[in-house]
Amino acid sequence: MKNSTPKFIFITGGVVSSLGKGLASASLASLFISRGFKVRLRKLDPYLNVDPGTMSPYQHGECFVTDDGAETDLDLGHYERFTGVNSRKSDNVTTGKIYSQVLKKERRGDYLGATIQVIPHVTDAIKKFIISDISDEDFMFCEIGGTVGDIESLPFIEAIRQLRNELGKENTCFVHVTLLPFINAAKELKTKPTQHSVKELQGMGIQPDILLCRTEMNIPEDQKKKIAQFCNVKEQAVIEAIDVNSIYEVPIAYNNAGFDKEILDYFSLYDEKSPDLSVWKKIISIQKSSEGEVNIGIVGKYTSIIDSYKSLIEAITHGGIANKTKINLVWIDSENIDNVSNCFKDVHGIIVPGGFGERGSDGKILAINYARLNKIPFLGICLGMQLAVIEFARNVMNYKNASSTEFGPTKFPVISLLTEWQTQKGKEKRDILSEYGGTMRLGSYECHLKQNSKIFDIYNNEIIHERHRHRYEVNLDLCDKFDEAGMFFAGMSPDNILPETLELNDHPWFIAVQFHPELKSRPFQPHPLFVSFINASLNQSRLL
């Protein structure tokens, strides 16, 4: 299907938060890809932050980074993992970013003295975002963050209402995700919350075309009829979204429920061929018949909110799929490590993921030390690499004062602030007082791997491209001394200035990287680092 105007599918959510709109959007988009269509996915977030880059993981979960350096919502990670389509800066916007753009234009006098209002100026900016940077996509999936009824999302709801009128019903479809709670005392699903949510949406001028109903069990036919009648939709447009054991079952479940077919019918696009679901079926089959089992310890300070490490969790899962191995995640709070041996006695591999700040760093260093001394497979990511350098400097090279300038003044800074960023305008100088938002080394950068290294063997490539998100780097002046002591910096930036990877010569699998490999892993294309790490952990489990 190719036409001048793509079909826009707007996904909203009601009743409660955390219904999985992002996962629903990603899964549905994957079904359209499997039918041969070209898709893009976008997320419109109602919060006032310009982007999630400075938000606490406790508040927002992980900050997902795109190839072109956007700090975005974690749902864009779902989009990429399920579709294989790389997201861009133009695929995520917030209320804060919209208002910033509008106010900049007002300060420049672009509105010619007009009174600036939500309608039309803010809604026009939202509409411009939705329809911009589109090439030859067949379908554009636009997820509206938040819950219908929240005051923050009102401008976005109004904007898509206007777009329905401007683009036409034949080019727009409203999908509303709701919850059907099961009341155990009554032994039945309750439809009233969905009815009220749809009524709220109708009060804003939007009649949903399709309802995606989250539920713990199958929806009885009489309940479907009731929902259809009181929500003013066709009965076949009430789609059951029953809970599944693995998120990678969702595309299959949606296809079985007729979700993708209903949307095609809505647009009068009759596709006789079935989507190719073989890749998802293969993944599920492997997950259900694992041949091995490993315990992977994740040492961090946000372990109570696992969405803080969403991409990491999925990348580990992908490594398990590639090795036909069941993964048991062992969450270890880096601030509460008292007895190291007890914490890691049943762990077959240790990961210290990315993060910021000194809090919890001592516990992470203890974990790294334990992995190094006990020959346990270790993967350090971003801050994990920096702490591996500090641990090695202190305990092997006897630089007891070795530290990072991120943690405060230090007599021996093995990690220091990266002061030069390569931008489109050339090199840009920044310092410790620079704004935090958008001032890191962000996005995809080239890295050169030395051929006589473990990591080269893993990638089987001399030149790789990985995504970064950091403000601090290993002190290049000390690399030769580390090399002499047994720590090998095998990956470097093309100009040979920034150390990108390290490994230990006398350890079976000890690798740390400055970039974030988890951001590029896919269930159908697992990242080689995680494949290798899980394989090494599997070998470790057989030794215990």
Rounded Rg: 25 Å
Strand content: 15-25%
CATH third-level topology of the largest domain = Rossmann fold
Helix tally equals 18
- Kindly state the number of beta strands: 25
Which structural class best describes the helix and strand composition?
A: alpha/beta
- Classify the helix fraction into a percent range: 25-40%
Q: Briefly, what CATH class of the largest domain?
A: Alpha Beta
Largest sheet: 9 strands, mixed
The number of distinct structural domains comes to 2
Straight-line distance between termini: 56 Å
Low-confidence stretches: 420-424, 426-433
CATH superfamily of the largest domain: P-loop containing nucleotide triphosphate hydrolases
**Mean pLDDT value:** 91
* Shape field: globular
In which order are the strands of the major sheet placed?
A: 13-12-14-15-25-24-23-20-21
Task: State the CATH architecture of the largest domain.
Answer: 3-Layer(aba) Sandwich
Structure description:
Helix 8 links the parallel strand 10 and strand 11. This protein has 544 residues and is an alpha/beta fold. It has 2 domains: 276 residues, Rossmann fold (3-Layer(aba) Sandwich), CATH 3.40.50; 199 residues, 3-Layer(aba) Sandwich (Rossmann fold), CATH 3.40.50. The protein contains 18 helices and 25 strands. It is globular. The strands form 6 sheets. Strands 13-12-14-15-25-24-23-20-21 form a 9-stranded mixed beta sheet, sandwiched between helices. Helix 4 crosses helix 5 and helix 5 packs across helix 6.
What labels would you give this structure?
single chain; about 550 residues; alpha/beta; Rossmann fold; 2 domains; 9-stranded mixed beta sheet; 7-stranded parallel beta sheet; globular
